[in-house]
Structures are given as C-alpha cells and as structure tokens.
Amino acid sequence: MTLQDIPENFDFDAFSKFMLENKQIWFVLAFYDEIFPEEYMIKVKAFVEKLKTENYGDHRRPAIYINDIDVVNDNNGDGDGIMNP
Fold this sequence. Notes:
The chain contains two helices and four strands, in the order E-H-E-H-E-E. It is of the alpha/beta class and 85 residues long. It has a four-stranded mixed β-sheet with strand order 1-2-3-4, with no helix packed on it. The longest helix is centred in the middle third of the chain and has 16 residues, at 38-53. The radius of gyration is 12 Å and the shape is globular. It starts with a strand and ends in a 15-residue tail after the last strand. Mean pLDDT is 85; it is low at 76-85.
C-alpha cells in the first residue's frame, strides 16, 4: 500500500498503530518535511526508529521516505527484500 502526497492533516498516530497491527501489508509512505510542522516530523522520525527494531518476522518492513530517502530501510537490507534486524 503506497501513500504519497500525504496531507498535513493525515492522522499519523492512528495509521502507525494500524501499520504495526498489520505487518503482513507492506506500506510505503512518502513525506516531504518542508510542508509539515516540525512536531509532526518528530513523530514520524520517532516511529521510524521504532520500526528499525520491531520484529517483522518474514514480512518486509514498511518504507518511509522523507524527501525521497527511505529512512527505515537505508543500509539495513540483506538483499532479498526482507528487512530483519
């Protein structure tokens, strides 16, 4: 599931909970931090750090792009597309 051009009023708290409850779905979110308040992006970046340590088993970790950079999966892949710690 890909979400791009995410509006500022997007309820990231609710959606991040949904993402953690549905690890079988591969999510891709794209944010451009110059259009979001700093407080909003702090929440997004904190969730990114949580995702890096969350156990995803055989599922792919979500990809979260901030200004076209995948901040979840940068240099953490093992080459097969399944991102696990």
